[in-house]
Write a structure and sequence with these properties.
Length: 41
């Protein structure tokens, strides 16, 4: 049964996690444009 191997290969190699992460960061930046980022001391 190669299903597990297929899924692991897909998740680890075919999906670009760097691209997905950068898209999420960019999307969050667009959503948060209205409120300033104030670091909590």
């Amino acid at each position: 049964n190669d299903k597990e191997k297929y899924v692991l290969t897909f998740l680890n190699h075919l999906v670009s996690w760097n691209a997905a992460t950068s898209r999420m960061i960019r999307a969050e930046a667009f959503v948060n444009l209205g409120e300033p980022k104030v670091p909590v001391a």
